[in-house]
Amino acid sequence: MNNKKISTTLPDGTLKEYDVLFTFKNDANQKDYIVYTDNSIDKDNKLRIFAAIYNPDTFETLGEPSTPEEWNEIYRLLDKILLNKK
User: Fold this and answer.
1) Left if phi > 0, otherwise alpha if psi is -120 to 50, otherwise beta: which for 21?
2) What is the total count of domains within the chain?
3) What is the pLDDT of residues 12-36, one digit of tens each?
4) pTM over 0.70
5) Torsion angle of C-alpha atoms 45, 8, 64, 62, degrees rounded to 10
6) The domain containing residue 30 runs over which residues?
7) What are the two backbone dihedrals, phi and then psi, of residue 83, each rounded to the nearest 5 degrees?
8) CB under 8 Å to 40, separation ≥6 — which residues?
9) What is the sign of the dihedral through the CA atoms of 39, 43, 49 and 54?
10) Region for residue 28 given its phi and psi (left: phi exceeds 0; alpha: psi -120 to 50; beta: otherwise)
11) Sheet containing 15-26: which strands, arranged edge to edge?
C-alpha cells in the first residue's frame, strides 16, 4: 500500500479515514479514479473496497463510477495488482 489516506465527514459529523489502494487515469474517458478501503470486512469475509472519480490535484471525490466499462477497468486493475502480490 502507498500509505496515502483520504477522509470524509459522515452525516453524524464523524471523520472517517480511508487508505488509498491506487489511483489511475482512464485514457479512454479522461477521468481519474481513486480506489480505497476502510479496512473493514463484509459479511462474506472480504475486504471492503470503494472507488470514485476524483480530482488528482485536490483528492476531492467527484462521484462514483457509473458505467459497466468503468467498473470493469477498476476490477481489471484490482485483479492485476492482486495477482502481482502473490
Assistant:
1) alpha
2) 1
3) 999 999 999 999 999 989 999 999 9
4) yes
5) -160
6) 5-85
7) -65, -35
8) 47, 48
9) negative
10) alpha
11) 5-9, 15-26, 31-41, 47-54, 61-63
